[in-house]
UniProtKB/TrEMBL annotation:
CDD domains: LolA. This is Outer membrane lipoprotein carrier protein LolA. InterPro entries: LolA/LolB/LppX, OM_lipoprot_carrier_LolA-like. Gene3D superfamilies: Lipoprotein localisation LolA/LolB/LppX (2.50.20.10). Transmembrane segments: none annotated. Keywords: Lipoprotein, Signal. It comes from Bombella pollinis. The keyword tRNA-binding does not apply. The keyword Lipoprotein applies. It comes from the Bacteria. Pfam families: LolA (PF03548).
Length: 215
């Protein structure tokens, strides 16, 4: 079983966007093979994880355009903003909506009808993005590291309750420089969601108003 888990966790490269959902479901099934942290991984994979930790903890901000896919073929696009411990999504399609994640919660406001929704991220894989500083050991499982040509992705789960879901972070990796280009996930009900990021700008000043929860 250990050999099987090891082969599965080391398998594969970065897939085309249409296959990401399949890869995420495969990764979710690997959670039973994983242990907390990443000591169980090969030395090269641990090196890549350290690179990702250093990259994320070295960021002061990200802003980008996004395209979203989600359950039941839900689609959307808009603008994405991130600073350590917080992120915001401003949707233009399908509805004018603003979503702010911070302090363990996601708050969404539909500007068309004024409806406000509060969601807890404490048992949702997207909550891993709210950690600062970011460290993928102890209470986090690294379930998979996958390399492709000029690309890298890692899959993560909560070590104490991995059945709650899986988060996969996707990066371009050009001449040793990482840049976040995708955030994919599978929740505890195996519903897939994901953001593909475009026109990414890093370490540019962001107004604090981006991260004030909508009223």
């Amino acid at each position: 079983m250990k050999d099987l888990c090891s082969r599965l966790m080391r398998y594969g490269a970065i897939y085309h966007v249409r296959l990401w959902s399949v890869l995420l479901v495969m990764s979710l099934s690997l959670i039973g093979c994983a242990t907390a942290g990443y000591d169980h991984l090969a030395a090269g994979e641990r090196h890549d994880i350290h690179r990702v930790e250093a990259y994320l903890n070295g960021l002061s901000s990200i802003q980008a355009q996004f395209a979203q896919d989600g359950p039941a073929q839900q689609q959307g696009d808009g603008r994405f903003f991130y600073v350590p411990g917080r992120f915001e999504m401003v949707y233009d399609v399908p509805h004018a909506t603003r979503a702010v994640a911070r302090d363990g919660h996601l708050i969404l406001r539909n500007d068309d009808n004024g409806a406000v929704t509060h969601l807890s991220l404490k048992r949702n894989p997207m909550g891993l993005l709210l950690r600062h500083p970011i460290s993928f050991d102890k209470d986090v499982q690294v379930t998979q590291v996958a390399r492709g040509e000029e690309s890298l992705q890692i899959s993560l789960a909560e070590a104490n309750d991995p059945s709650q879901g899986l988060l996969t972070l996707q990066f371009s990796d050009v001449r040793g420089k990482l840049s976040l280009i995708g955030i994919q996930g599978v929740d505890g009900r195996h519903h897939h969601f994901g953001l593909s990021l475009f026109d990414v700008q890093e370490n540019q000043p962001l107004d604090e108003s981006h991260f004030i929860p909508p009223a």
